[in-house]
Write a structure and sequence with these properties.
The structure is a single chain. This protein is of the alpha/beta class. The protein is built from 22 helices and 16 strands. It has helices spanning 25-42, 97-112, 156-161, 169-181, 199-205, 223-226, 238-252, 281-302, 315-321, 391-403, 421-433, 438-449, 454-467, 486-496, 508-511, 516-545, 551-586, 590-613, 631-646, 656-662, 665-668, 682-692; strands spanning 8-11, 16-18, 47-49, 58-62, 76-81, 89-94, 131-134, 138-139, 147-151, 186-188, 209-211, 257-261, 307-312, 332-336, 367-372, 409-413. Strand 13, helix 9 (315-321) and strand 14 (332-336) form a beta-alpha-beta unit. It starts with 7 loop residues before the first strand and ends in a 5-residue tail after the last helix.
């Protein structure tokens, strides 16, 4: 039996698009994206008209009463018109600006094949001679989450990518476009950027709600920037604090703002660290409650029906759960994961209480979550590399949060976008539907962004988490790229300062309270056990690359997959050799320690080379500002270390190790001290000694 025949609308390359005479700025941006997408796919420029015409192919308009739509924010749909011999045309209809934007971008995705991360994942764009569109009306589904957005946080790669500072429109527009294509409607546009920057302005221009960092309540200027030299105490200077808050309200009151109410100390620390008079939970909670209520009242006096939230982050969550903080009833309460994707309180130094961070059944009102797929904590987080946990782990945590009632708001720490597109795309589906089939999502993701070898690529994404190094007892204790660098630099510094007889406090979070030599041994063991996993994963990746003949396809796999494996493998191996160098040093094997430190440095240098090789084309200089993981700093630290080690037995002429280990026996007894050759460089000496000590490698 033949299936029901579906009528089709055929659009040729030269189409006519009818738009309103007066488009808002957000819709103008979306229309510009559509024209660019059409030009890239169809290789022709559409004709725009504001006149009502019978020969039009596509109409972009706001919904009218006769369309019979549910009146809800951000709704959009497709309609097809044409009867009595008239030409059929398509209409993209939105109930408001964001609805119209989403409709335009959905047309681009569905029919032109332009996916949300086309820019960031270097999606190959297929050319088409015409579009064939089924004539079927469509109404957009209601997203599960009301406010869906990104926190562009720790964005040093975005900052260093282009020359202007703060970053210009050239940087921000692709970020916000990708967010809109993901169905997002809210953004914190950067971290502590100068107020003169265009980041918030461009976000608002493109139709996004703007919200704030929890350390910058209401988006106000930091107290100590506005009043240098004054004491940052609300108790002592309430008028000055409130003046800053009022300035922020006046500046933003006519825009779409999700107002963040909060009170932390300067520099994103608890305020009582600088005011010891707040020495009890009762006093701290009372002050936070008082400030939040005052901020809430000030906004209410200037803004009609404001949307307000409070970030229950860190110590504020603990105070709230303890019953020490009172909040206005209609404020959205934002719960946070620990930076590693688990909905528990984050680790503070070596203190890791892991208090559950979700609303309890008795906790009424609106709730949301702040979630990380990338993090910077100077311990074990992933900043340059993909989230080390599995898609199934994220699915479980986010779905559990939604089921617990945190369905009003999702703010996702998106970092620098490019390294994290897979997990950002996973959250896109979660905040839209409230659930995700991780296998189906991965298969669809791979098919969208890679032209071939889909099963092998999907398996590399799946097995990436299996290669990640576990460093603790919890399922989310998986090492990201910072694990190989921040602890390593701490070890070098402690070592060179002659503190090896005492434990390093900055490593206790991982090792526990043990002597320094055991702390080093802990990291050595982690890296020994993890190195083989990364070598195997990279071997499979290289096998795939050997099958790809197209240079663009190869580069895409290198940038989206192999890059992450290289940073993990070189970091892991570099850290391993560093730990071996310390053990050799403790045993008085200074030449061997020198070679091990050199081997460590060479491994870390491979990581820098991976950054450079991923900066081709439009990505030139993208990783130039690697200031957080800072592989270059690790290389410099280890280089300093090996210079120090060469002082142990090769100084002052830096020829003694050459004479002892490398010089032919016949020469050792007859050469003249005043005529021997120039000392070898560190690299030359290390390479020669490595061959001499080859049994250690």
């Amino acid at each position: 039996m033949e299936g029901k025949k579906v009528n089709q609308l055929r659009l040729s390359r030269e189409i006519r698009i009818q738009v309103s005479e007066s488009l808002s700025s957000p819709v103008e941006h979306a229309l510009r994206f559509l024209l660019r997408d059409w030009s890239n796919v169809m290789q022709a420029v559409p004709f725009l008209t504001t006149q009502v015409e019978e020969a039009v192919d596509l109409i972009i308009r706001y919904a009218r009463a006769e369309d019979g739509w549910e009146n809800r924010p951000e709704a959009y749909g497709f309609r097809f018109r044409g009867a009595d011999g008239q030409q059929t045309h398509m209409e993209i209809i939105g109930v408001d600006d964001l609805g119209l934007i989403y409709g335009i971008l959905e047309f681009s995705r569905r029919y032109l094949g332009i996916d949300p991360f086309w820019f960031w994942a270097d999606q190959p764009i297929n050319k088409l001679p015409e579009l064939i569109i089924p004539i079927e009306d469509y109404n957009s589904p209601l997203p599960v989450i009301r406010f869906r957005g990104w926190f562009v946080n720790d964005e040093v790669n975005l900052i260093g990518w282009k020359e202007p500072y703060p970053p210009s429109r050239e940087v921000w527009e692709p970020v916000f476009e990708a967010l809109l294509r993901c169905g997002g409607n809210m953004v914190i546009p950067g971290t502590d950027l100068p107020k003169s920057g265009v980041h918030a302005e461009v976000a608002a221009e493109m139709g996004l709600w703007v919200t704030h960092h929890h350390a910058e309540p209401l988006g106000a200027e930091m107290f100590l920037r506005a009043y240098p030299g004054r004491i940052a105490s609300y108790q002592q200077e309430p008028e000055l604090f409130e003046a800053l808050w009022q300035q922020a309200i006046d500046k933003q009151k006519d825009k779409n703002i999700v107002w963040v109410l909060s009170f932390r100390g300067q520099g994103d620390r608890p305020f009582w660290e600088n005011d010891p008079s707040f020495d009890t939970s009762e006093k701290r909670g009372a002050m936070i409650s008082r400030v939040v209520q005052r901020q809430y009242d000030m906004i209410g006096a200037s803004v009609e029906r404001p949307v307000c939230c409070v970030a229950l982050y860190g110590e504020i969550a603990e105070l709230y759960k303890g019953g020490y903080i009172d909040l206005p009833e209609d404020v959205i309460k934002i719960w946070a994961d620990n930076g590693y994707g688990k909905m528990v309180s984050r680790r503070h130094g070596s203190i890791n209480l892991r208090v559950p961070a979700l609303p309890e059944p008795r906790d009424t009102g609106k709730h949301g979550i702040y979630y990380h797929v990338t993090f910077h904590d100077l311990q074990a987080s992933n900043h340059l590399t993909m989230f080390p946990g599995s898609a199934s782990f994220i699915k479980e945590e986010v779905e559990q949060a939604i089921k617990a009632g945190a369905n009003e708001y999702v703010l996702l720490n998106c970092g620098n976008i490019r390294p994290h597109v897979y997990m950002l795309d996973l959250i896109r589906e979660l905040w839209s539907k409230g659930m995700v089939d991780t296998r189906k999502h991965l298969n669809e993701f791979v098919c969208r962004y890679f032209p071939s070898h889909h099963e092998e690529i999907a398996e590399l994404y799946r097995s990436y988490t299996e290669a990640a190094i576990p460093y603790g007892p919890h399922g989310d204790d998986l090492a990201g790229d910072e694990f190989y660098h921040h602890p390593a630099r701490k070890i070098v510094g402690h070592w060179l300062q002659g503190k090896g007889q005492q434990s390093h406090r900055g490593l206790v979070w991982a090792t526990g309270e043990v002597p320094f030599i055991q702390q080093v041994s802990f990291f050595k063991k982690c890296c020994e056990e993890g190195l083989e996993g990364w070598n195997q994963w990279l071997h499979r990746c290289d096998e795939l690359l050997s099958k790809l003949n197209n240079a663009e396809d190869r580069q895409r796999v290198i940038d989206q997959l192999r890059f992450h494996g290289i940073l993990n493998r070189t970091g892991c191996e570099g850290f391993l050799w560093l730990c071996r160098a310390y053990e050799a040093y403790v045993e008085g094997q200074y030449p061997q320690a020198f070679v091990y430190a050199s081997q460590s440095m060479w491994c870390y240098q491979e990581g820098i080379q991976a950054l450079r090789e991923s900066e081709q084309g439009k990505w030139e200089n993208f990783y130039k500002a690697d200031w957080l993981t800072n592989i270059e700093s690790t290389v410099q630290n280890v280089d300093t270390l090996r210079r120090f080690l060469r002082m142990h037995g090769d100084s002052p002429d830096f020829f003694l190790w050459y004479k002892e280990f490398l010089m032919p026996e016949t020469e050792k007894h007859i050469y003249l001290e005043n005529t021997h050759r120039n000392p070898l460089s560190d690299d030359e000496l290390a390479a020669k000694l490595k061959r001499k000590f080859s049994e250690s490698f």
